[in-house]
Amino acid sequence: MKKKKLVIFFLALIGVYIIYNITYKETSNYLAIGDDLAKGHTPFDTYNDSYTDYLYTYLKNKDKKMTINKEFISEDLRIKDLLENIKNPSVYEQKNLPQAIQNADIITISIGSEELFAKLRSNNWKTTNEKLYNYVDEMINDLEKLIKEIQKIKKTETYIIGYYNPIVYTSENETKLKSLYNYIDIKLKNLENTKNIYYVEIANEFQNKTYYLPNKEHAFPSLEGYNYIANKIIKKIESH
């Protein structure tokens, strides 16, 4: 009887050991993906803390094992570049996006804003609705493809940061720009139909807010603006 109990005891220990080794990770990982917004481009053409840094501080306080991967942050990064990296990771040497996704426990993505800013800055908001909305549709369709590719690799919690309008409203542009950003928000909100995908809307809060966008010549946020974006992501995290 004692031998039987001893065998059961050791089998239980082996089971616990196996489960521990399967589930245990030395660290947790936050994968930050994005362009200049994720990098921390300031309104005065320098670099400082971004929302990624504020968010990492929060995550680190919650989980001391948390690390951050910023390898996929670049001022000229495009959605198409990320899709190409996933399809042909060997071309990108050490910057292997599929591996980074596999290691990630949480992902944030803010990309495409610079291209959108450039179009708006060059007065393309004056162009026909069809051209402008076709551009937005193409950009968001690429983003949807990227999310699907990420989900194929690992169904990690992923937070998509929305776009904001860097142009001050005037009687000439207000109606058109508001309609455009409402359209973008609706399209991006639909991405939440995919499990583990969360959309972080920031357009309304940033519009005409000089303490978030203090320099009309540069579209990037102040530290307060970056901190605000981080707090919106944190609220999303805590809500589920």
Major β-sheet annotation: 5 strands, parallel
Overall geometry comes to globular
Provide the succession of SSEs. HEHHEHHEHHEHEHH
Distance between the termini: 49 Å
By DSSP (H or I, 4+ residues per run), the number of helices equals: 10
Number of strands: 5
Structural class: alpha/beta
Radius of gyration over C-alpha positions, nearest whole angstrom: 22 Å
Q: Approximately what portion of the residues adopt beta-strand conformation?
A: 5-15%
Mean pLDDT equals 85
Low-confidence stretches: 16-24
Please write out the topology.
Layout: H1 2-23, E1 28-34, H2 36-39, H3 51-62, E2 66-73, H4 79-87, H5 97-103, E3 106-110, H6 113-121, H7 129-153, E4 157-161, H8 174-189, E5 197-200, H9 203-206, H10 223-239
Parallel strand pairs: 1-2, 1-3, 3-4, 4-5
Helix pairs in contact: 3-10, 4-7, 7-8
Account of the 3D structure:
By secondary structure, the chain is α/β, with parallel strands linked by helices. 52% of the residues lie in helices and 12% in strands. The protein is built from ten helices and five strands; from the N terminus they run αβααβααβααβαβαα. The protein has helices at residues 2-23, 36-39, 51-62, 79-87, 97-103, 113-121, 129-153, 174-189, 203-206, 223-239, and strands at 28-34, 66-73, 106-110, 157-161, 197-200. Strands 2-1-3-4-5 form a five-stranded parallel β-sheet, with helices on both faces. Strand 4 (157-161), helix 8 (174-189) and strand 5 form a beta-alpha-beta unit. Helix 4 runs parallel beside helix 7 and helix 7 (129-153) runs parallel beside helix 8. The N and C termini lie far apart (49 Å). The model is unreliable at 16-24 (pLDDT under 50).
